[in-house]
Amino acid sequence: MHPSEFIVCEHCDVVYQRADLIRKQSACCVRCGAELYRAPAMHLQTMLALVVTSLFLFVIANAYPLISMQMNGIDHASTLIDSVAAAWHSGVGPIAVMTALAVVLFPLTQIVLLGYLLTSLIMLHRDPPGFVDLMHALRLMRPWSMVEVYLIGALVAVVKMAGMASVRAEPGLYALGALTFLLALINAFDLRLLWDARDRLVE
Ligand SMILES: [Zn+2]
User: Fold this and answer.
1) What is the architecture, at CATH level 2, of domain 44-202?
2) What residue segments make up the domains of the chain, in order of their start?
3) Where are the transmembrane segments (predicted)?
4) Whole-angstrom distance, CA of residue 21 vs CA of residue 35
5) Quick check: helix, strand or coil at residue 134?
6) Residue 115 has pLDDT above 90, yes or no
7) Nearest to residue 58, comparing CAs of 146, 139, 178, 143?
8) Fewer CB atoms near the end CB (10 Å): N or C, the chain?
9) pLDDT range class, residue 141, cuts 50, 70, 90
10) How far is ligand 1, taken at its centre, from the CA of residue 4, in Å?
11) Which residues lie across from 68 on neighbouring strands?
């Protein structure tokens, strides 16, 4: 019998069998009325939809220019990778590497790993090979995925340069904004739900 099938009331020690809750429901103790547990704010299916959407946004944010500038009648458009390369060539190697990791590599790895784990668990109903190691990798990567820092930097640049040249926000910047929002939701997701889903499969 799986241990999480039972739940004990923290206040009066009555033991209950867990029941599946739908969104926003919570289970309360019949004897003392204390809350036992709540339905998760986000389900695995919702999570998978967010992950797939964020993969599309990631591609757009990287493939299209973020900012374009008109100087002396010539258009300069720069993508995220352009700005990493520019930082590298102007001698701030560490910043270039950190940007490449925190804004490109870690978020992409997070998205791909979550996509793989969720697809395997809820679409194919099988235990994904490497589950434990990949879950640890996800947990370690979480604090280092910092698209928002870059987004703020890019927005500050747009505002500052607006006086000097004609600066325009390009599709990549909008995609990066939306991606930042989705990654915040994804990072707030309770990873225990994946462990629970896997426990149910391998039982
Ligand atoms: Zn109780």
Assistant:
1) Up-down Bundle (1.20)
2) 3-38, 44-202
3) 47-67, 95-124, 145-167, 173-195
4) 13
5) helix
6) yes
7) 178
8) N
9) confident
10) 18
11) 77, 168
Rounded average pLDDT over 18-28: 79
- DSSP assignment of 110-121, as one string? HHHHHHHHHIII
d(CA 172, CA 189): 25
Greater confidence, 37 or 194?
194
Please list, in sequence order, all residues whose beta carbon lies within 8 angstroms of the beta carbon of residue 158, skipping any fewer than 6 positions away. 67, 167, 169, 173
**Structure tokens belonging to residue 56:** 């599309």
CB 163 within 8 A of CB 52: no
- Is residue 187 within 8 A of residue 106, CB to CB? The reply is no
Is the sign of the CA dihedral 181, 129, 191, 46 positive or negative?
Answer: positive
User: Which residues are within 5 Å of ligand 1 (an ion), measured at CB?
Assistant: 9, 11-12, 29, 31-32, 34
CA of 181 to the centre of ligand 1 (A): 39
Tokens of 3: 């241990």
CB 62 within 8 A of CB 179: no
